[in-house]
Amino acid sequence: MKCKRCGELAAVKLPSHHAGFCPSCFEGFFKKQVETAVRRHGMIGRDEKVLVAVSGGKDSLALMRVLTDLGHVVEGLHVHLGIPDSSDPVAERTRAFCAASGLTLHVLHTAEHGLAVPDVKDAVRRPVCAVCGKIKRHYFNRFAYENGFAALATGHNLDDETARLFANVLRWDPAYLGTQGPTLPGEGKFVRKIKPLYRLTEFETAAYCFLKGIDHWKAACPYSGGASFTGHKKLIADLEDRSPGQKIAFYEAFLAQGRPHFAGASRGEGQDTLYACAQCGFPSSGEVCGVCRVREQVAAHKARREAV
Ligand code: SF4
Ligand code: ZN
């Protein structure tokens, strides 16, 4: 197969775009998709500083690289969760990549905030991933807000977004359907959330990392019960195989025609009003936010253990 742009030998075949690209033209294609996403959804204003949530995986590192290459002012934040045999090597790999690429990376240790994830796992009765996700979202937003970033960018790709949309549609969840999208505007102490990779698939970000020599972390978190929405992703991949282009069409049509019907939908009685958390001052649906409550649970659990 030949490259659609230059006629050289294609290295990446993309049936959904009825095209193949050589390495250099694939990078051009990749950048173009991100540029389109940023422009269409008002993600980044002129001279605005963007914080990238960096897990160390392929999507977040590709995002750091491509936004920087497109001329945006970008810094990364890696949240170190204190998970044995996982958090240290991931942070090291991420630091090494950013240092070698001249990218600014901040590292925040949740243990310094009384929230090492192994302690959280012992202290709470809920599945650890739900709580860990809440902690990460809190600190990414808080760091962005307290350090003057205009937006927080995450590495969600088209597969993540279509799988989430599919789940929200299966449940007909109006509040989630009303807010799901590539840009969530900022409000008060919530900074704007953006997903510049939403038009690119997992395969495309993996190909980008491979061709750019981005050495990302591949091992799963030891607490992971498997990737989220795996079943939904398989179903959508099946549809895409039978009819290339379905995935992006499904998502873009939702943004244009589906989402407006759910705009402003309520989260349920008493769920829409936000207060300032009495402990950290960040938005909360109750007097104390979920993260501060977990911190209290962890401290209480430790105190009980030490007392016996
Ligand atoms: Fe946190 Fe779960 Fe992800 Fe591990 S798999 S980093 S515990 S959300
Ligand atoms: Zn709080």
Automatic annotation (TrEMBL):
Domain of life: Bacteria
Positions bound to ATP: A53, V54, S55, D59, V79, G155, D160
A cellular component term, taken from the record's GO annotations: cytosolic tRNA wobble base thiouridylase complex
GO BP terms: tRNA wobble position uridine thiolation
InterPro entries (UniProt xref): Rossmann-like_a/b/a_fold, TilS/TtcA_N, tRNA_thiolation_TtcA_Ctu1, TtuA-like_LIM_N
Keywords recorded for this protein, A-Z: ATP-binding, Metal-binding, Nucleotide-binding, Transferase, Zinc
Protein name in the entry: Uncharacterized protein
